[in-house]
Specification:
- The complex is a heterodimer of chains A (about 270) and B (about 270).
- Chain A is an all-alpha fold.
- Chain A has 12 helices and no strands.
- Chain A has helices at about 15-35, 40-45, 50-60, 65-95, 95-110, 120-125, 130-155, 160-165, 170-190, 190-205, 215-225, 225-255.
- Mean pLDDT of chain A is about 90; it is low at about 1-5 and about 265-268.
- In chain B, helix 3 (about 100-110) packs parallel to helix 5 (about 145-155).
- Chain B folds into 2 domains: about 5-85 and about 160-270, P-loop containing nucleotide triphosphate hydrolases (Rossmann fold); about 95-160, no CATH class.
- With about 270 residues, chain B is an alpha/beta fold.
- In chain B, the strands form 2 sheets. Chain B has a 6-stranded mixed beta sheet with strand order 6-7-8-3-9-10, with helices on both faces. In chain B, strands 2-1-4-5 form a 4-stranded antiparallel beta sheet, covered by helices on one side.
- The chains are: A mainly alpha (about 270), B alpha/beta (about 270).
- The complex binds adenosine-5'-diphosphate (ADP) and magnesium ion.
- Adenosine-5'-diphosphate binds next to strand 2 and helix 2 of chain B.
- Adenosine-5'-diphosphate binds near residues 15, 30, 51, 56 and 219 of chain B.
Chain lengths: ~270, ~270
């Protein structure tokens, strides 16, 4: 039999998927076995079967939906507000050398600050509702997008700029047809990171104090030493993070058709 | 008498690098006391070794760069700011990568607030004219180098500039594509005789296209060292004209003068 070509491992398509699923199953099986035989204490490590049952019941009874909805809402709000403000402020600063020179050290300082530490302050400012989580998410998203906008402006080729000027672009036309699209393309390429950050902001915010959301479920379960529920929460978060990432991938593909496919990947 | 389309008078361009300023090194003189004229409807090529200051001269004519000394006159008026009568075709890729070929061609009309349907119809005509009729919805990265140059050409010509400034526009193309593009350029040019300032480092290209060829010395302190009227009949076919005895004669004549400068330029580039 000839080896499948084009893939170094020799595994492809459905076969690869099958082995990947099997790998996951084996890990769960080993975990289950270790716990059942008391090699690992159940109290700390939980039981995979119970974790899965827990997660499944959440969905069959529907109790998880309000929590997931809250977490997703916080994620979306943090992303939209964070990215938009970063785009506007980034464009403005990148095109104003004086303002940018003035604020540079402070932006650097704020970026290096571990921003998760702001969560308690936001809780005090905005209460335990969704806005303290959104605020945390914004601080995380903002800088990712901000620096990409900055890069996007700086990356505009001087030849392209000179060309559009010779074609008669006014300052505002230059902004609309050159700077903004260039910055946006950089923002789009940082979409995965930015959305991930918004998600982290929401969950961490919830975990540090809330009354709703998947982070809250984990917090509560931990309070009563229910390790299985903690793991179930982590499982649900992971699955939704993956779904979110896939969605972002689709959006990115739609909006960046004009980009050459990175070397090695197939042309569409 | 009608004023010349372009007149550079004693143009000098100096570049101050930040390092040079700090260490008190005198500024680099890229172009020194250069004067040149292009009559209305004339096709003039400027030729010189790489790095001698050809692009600098073109940028001055376009109004993208202010000369350190001297002045630029466009149809008799002193140039202030950008040269609105000129279209510029750059050496490097200058299309907006996030716009399709068609959208790139409409760009200039968009800036002039021409209604979109009208601009699109006009741009389609121009894409046809440069032989890209079916490629309007392609993005620049989906086009070959030659096709991108055609889009740039259409993008510039759709605005009907009186003066064309072209900076080694075909230097990155393979020989066959290049001959095709040169023929097309001549055909488009002969339709309404714009004034052309064409930069190249290829002597054959310069002779084949132009009414007049100006040779520049090697840098620093570039200035014209010779000027030749090209009295070859038009219309010309780029591939065939190279074989004409008069072409060969002109080529030898100009090359005699340029040889030394090319050598100087080469030595300088080795030293850098
Ligand atoms: N913005 C600039 N700053 C400093 N030096 C420059 C700048 N632009 C061009 N030069 C220098 O001026 C010389 C002429 O450049 P250029 O006009 O691009 O040459 P050419 O187009 O003939 O190859 C080169 O030595 C180049 O290094
Ligand atoms: Mg050049």
């Amino acid at each position: 039999m000839s080896k499948a070509s084009g893939n170094k491992s020799g595994l492809r398509g459905p076969m690869l998927r099958f082995w990947q699923a099997l790998l996951l199953l084996v890990v769960f099986a080993v975990w289950q076995a270790l716990v059942v035989t008391n090699v690992l204490p159940k109290f700390f490590f939980g039981e995979p079967i119970k974790v899965l049952t827990r997660a499944v019941t959440w969905f069959t009874t529907g109790t998880i939906w309000p929590h997931l909805a809250t977490t997703l809402l916080e994620t979306v709000l943090a992303f939209v507000i964070g990215a938009t403000s970063a785009l506007v402020i980034g464009l403005w600063l990148a095109l104003n050398p004086t303002a940018s020179a003035l604020t540079e050290p402070y932006i650097k300082a704020m970026n290096s600050m571990p921003r998760v530490i702001l969560a308690p302050i936001f809780a005090v400012w905005f209460g335990l509702g969704i806005w303290s989580k959104v605020a945390l998410g914004i601080t995380l998203v903002f800088f990712v997008v901000f620096f990409n906008v900055y890069q996007g402006i700086r990356e505009v080729s001087p030849v392209v700029l000179a060309n559009t000027r010779m074609l008669g672009a006014s300052r505002s036309q230059l902004l609309r047809t050159v700077y903004l699209p260039s910055a946006t393309s950089w923002v789009l390429s940082s979409l995965h990171t930015a959305v991930g950050m918004a998600f982290v902001g929401a969950v961490v915010g919830e975990y540090l104090g809330s009354s709703k959301g998947v982070g809250y479920l984990i917090l509560q379960a931990e309070g009563v030493f229910d390790v299985n529920t903690v793991f179930a929460g982590i499982l649900v978060l992971t699955i939704f993070a993956l779904l979110l990432d896939g969605l972002v991938g689709l959006v990115e593909k739609r909006l960046l058709v004009w980009r050459p496919a990175p070397a090695g990947s197939e042309a569409h | 008498m009608i004023a010349p389309a372009v007149a550079l008078r004693d143009v000098t361009c100096r570049f101050h690098t930040t390092r040079a300023l700090k260490e008190g090194i005198p500024a680099y003189v890229a172009v020194d006391q250069t004067s040149l004229k292009i009559a209305n409807g004339e096709f003039v090529s400027v030729i010189g070794p790489t790095g001698c200051g050809k692009s600098t001269l073109l940028n001055v004519t376009a109004g993208l760069l202010k000369p350190s000394e001297g002045s630029v006159e466009i149809f008799g008026d002193i140039l202030r700011g950008l040269n609105a009568k000129a279209g510029y075709m750059f050496q490097a890729d200058s299309l907006l990568p996030w716009r399709t070929a068609l959208e790139n061609v409409t760009l200039g009309l968009e800036y002039r607030r021409v209604p979109a349907p009208e601009a699109t119809a006009h741009a389609m005509e121009w894409l046809d004219r440069v032989g890209l009729g079916g490629f309007g919805d392609r993005y620049p990265h989906q086009l070959s180098g030659g096709m991108r140059k055609r889009v740039s050409l259409a993008q510039m010509l759709i605005l009907d500039p009186k003066i064309l400034l072209m900076d080694e526009p075909f230097s990155a193309l393979d020989v066959q594509t290049r001959v095709l593009m040169e023929n097309e350029l001549l055909e488009l040019w002969s339709a309404d005789r714009k004034s052309v300032l064409f930069i190249t480092h290829d002597l054959e290209e310069a002779i084949a296209l132009s009414d007049r060829v100006i040779a520049l010395s090697a840098g620093p302190g570039t200035h014209p060292i010779g000027e030749w009227a090209i009295d070859l009949p038009r219309p010309r076919d780029i591939a065939e004209i190279r074989l004409a005895p008069r072409f060969v004669e002109l080529h030898r004549l100009i090359w005699e003068t340029m040889k030394e400068e090319v050598l100087k330029g080469y030595v300088q580039s080795q030293r850098k």
